[in-house]
């Protein structure tokens, strides 16, 4: 691989990983040498080298392979000792870490016999255990199913299919299963990897003419876990391979655990036979968190932080406030708490409600349910059974004018748009017209029970 080709690889990586990731992680890398199919990349720090190796190693190798088929492995010229996960054993103890050896097995778990270049298990996050997973109504079934599978007993439901929205704990549960299996059943060979990694491995095997090794390896494991399976949608040959691997393991009564961001039947461009195969075991949904679960997660995180930041006090009501206000995903919730503790420890203050509102203003704003003017117009015209064009149009008929005023009122109440802006969205009306409409509905809702009820229903629908 020449420096020029390395430049092309970097250009491709820029497109794939985005400019922020690119600047931080890829740009600092230098191509040092290529010998015997092994490309050595020099990273300025061992941390960076390890991080890139873990997170982008496969991708870099994949792109390099596309541009120059001679490259089969990558080395990072950094010390292997500085790996991010101290508990994970090193796959080898040489002074370099490779994209393969960072994909190390769960400690203690036996890794399926495989050629080194296809070494498949992705690293596990040691924070993601059953102990640190808070159980509530929305995730109790998923948790119970994961626990059962983690016992490593006779296979009762196969596959276990976990699905749910972003940041609701799918990966956490899968890692927890892997850790538990490794502790309870170190005799089992367990492979955990993302569907994306499955694809890269497969492509690599195709390129290296090692598909038999690939097949053999995946078909000889006891437990196969594939995260984010929606990734293989639309990728035909990967799907094909996945399907055969899947069938072979099911036939041998080996446990398969799959996660996705939606139910099997809802993954577009996933072959029907795969969709139906995925549904033949237990399909469990991780529901969006509720208030109690969020509070539980915050309390548990706070205990950890209190140990980390001794002496830092948390005022009553702060966690409740956060659990109430941040209702998106757990990742955002955790991030908010991390920021709060870090900030409070810097300024040396007790974490009060004011400090929380101050420090997390952007997160709180972003979590507010955003209702758009268009959504309001649509809902209101549906409610009053008029056409959207009549609501926005010039007609002054009472049957259009009243719903229009209701919609203007709701826009003022539920969005942060100014009166002139609302006017513009209502067919270019003047801000005084909007002001008048808002005032009129304000008065009417005191006198007219029907209007008050309409407003209540609409507000509830719009705020979800
Ligand atoms: N019930 C829970 N208890 C404790 N932590 C949780 C819980 N649910 C999620 N988390 C935490 O939230 C973060 C996001 O979870 P995770 O990565 O498992 O989400 P995911 O469902 O795999 O999301 P994505 O679709 O983005 O991959 C992690 O730090 C995880 O530890």
UniProtKB/TrEMBL annotation:
Which residue ranges does the record assign to the AAA+ ATPase domain? 156-284
Q: Which Gene3D superfamilies match?
A: 1.10.1750.10, 1.10.8.60, 3.30.300.180, P-loop containing nucleotide triphosphate hydrolases
What the entry lists under Pfam families is as follows: Bac_DnaA, Bac_DnaA_C, DnaA_N
Q: Which InterPro entries match?
A: AAA+_ATPase (IPR003593), Chromosome_initiator_DnaA (IPR001957), Chromosome_initiator_DnaA-like (IPR020591), Chromosome_initiator_DnaA_CS (IPR018312), DnaA_C (IPR013159), DnaA_dom (IPR013317), DnaA_N_dom (IPR024633), DnaA_N_sf (IPR038454)
Q: Which CDD domains match?
A: AAA, Bac_DnaA_C
Q: Where is this region: Domain I, interacts with DnaA modulators?
A: 1-80
Q: Which PROSITE patterns match?
A: DNAA
Provide any one GO MF term from the record: ATP binding
Region feature (Disordered):
85-107
Q: Does the keyword DNA-binding apply?
A: yes
Which stretches make up the Chromosomal replication initiator DnaA C-terminal domain? 372-441
List positions binding ATP: 167, 169-171
Q: Which GO terms describe its cellular component?
A: cytoplasm; plasma membrane
Localisation per UniProt entry: Cytoplasm
Matching SUPFAM superfamilies: P-loop containing nucleoside triphosphate hydrolases (SSF52540), TrpR-like (SSF48295)
Please note every region of biased composition (Low complexity).
Answer: 91-107
Q: Name one GO biological process term.
A: DNA replication initiation
- Subunit architecture: Oligomerizes as a right-handed, spiral filament on DNA at oriC.
Assigned protein family:
Belongs to the DnaA family.
- What is the name attached to this protein's record? Chromosomal replication initiator protein DnaA
Organism of origin: Roseovarius bejariae
Gene responsible for this protein: dnaA
């Amino acid at each position: 691989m020449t420096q020029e080709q390395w430049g092309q690889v970097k250009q491709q990586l820029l497109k794939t990983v985005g400019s922020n990731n690119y600047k931080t992680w890829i740009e600092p890398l230098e191509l040092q040498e290529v010998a015997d199919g092994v490309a050595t990349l020099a990273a300025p720090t061992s941390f960076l080298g390890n991080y890139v190796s873990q997170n982008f190693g496969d991708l870099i190798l994949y792109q390099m392979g596309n541009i120059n088929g001679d490259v089969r492995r990558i080395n990072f010229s950094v010390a292997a000792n500085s790996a991010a996960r101290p508990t994970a054993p090193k796959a080898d103890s040489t002074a370099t870490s490779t994209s393969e050896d960072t994909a190390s097995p769960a400690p203690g778990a036996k890794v399926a016999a495989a050629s080194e270049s296809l070494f498949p298990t992705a690293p596990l996050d040691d924070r993601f255990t059953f102990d640190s997973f808070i159980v509530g109504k929305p995730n109790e079934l998923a948790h119970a199913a994961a626990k059962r599978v983690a016992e490593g007993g006779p296979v009762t439901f196969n596959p276990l299919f976990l699905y749910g929205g972003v940041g609701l704990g799918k990966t956490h549960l899968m890692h927890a299963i892997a850790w538990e299996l490794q502790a309870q059943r170190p005799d089992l060979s367990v492979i955990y990897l993302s569907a994306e990694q499955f694809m890269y491995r497969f492509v690599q095997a195709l390129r290296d003419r090692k598909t038999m090794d690939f097949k053999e390896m995946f078909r000889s494991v006891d437990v196969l876990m594939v995260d984010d399976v929606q990734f293989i949608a639309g990728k035909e040959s990967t799907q094909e391979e996945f399907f055969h691997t899947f069938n072979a393991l099911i036939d041998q009564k080996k446990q398969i655990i799959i996660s996705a961001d939606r139910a099997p039947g809802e993954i577009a461009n996933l072959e029907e036979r795969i969709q139906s195969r995925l549904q033949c075991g237990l399909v469990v949904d991780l529901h969006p968190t509720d208030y109690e679960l969020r509070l539980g997660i915050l309390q548990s995180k706070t205990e950890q932080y209190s140990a980390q930041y001794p002496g830092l006090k948390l005022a009553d009501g702060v966690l409740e406030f956060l659990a109430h206000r941040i209702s998106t995903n757990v990742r955002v919730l955790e991030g908010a708490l991390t920021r709060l503790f870090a900030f409070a420890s810097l300024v040396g203050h007790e974490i009060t409600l004011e400090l929380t509102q101050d420090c997390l203003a952007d997160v709180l704003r972003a979590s507010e349910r955003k209702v758009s003017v268009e959504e309001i117009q649509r809902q209101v015209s549906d409610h009053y059974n008029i056409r959207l064009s009549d609501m926005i149009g010039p007609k002054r008929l009472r049957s259009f004018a009243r719903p229009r005023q209701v919609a203007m009122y709701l826009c003022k109440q539920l969005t942060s748009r100014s009166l002139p802006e609302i006017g513009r969205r209502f067919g270019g009306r003047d801000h005084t017209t909007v002001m008048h409409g808002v005032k009129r509905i304000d008065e009417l809702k005191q006198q007219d029970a029907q209007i008050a009820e309409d407003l209540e229903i609409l507000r509830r629908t719009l705020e979800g």
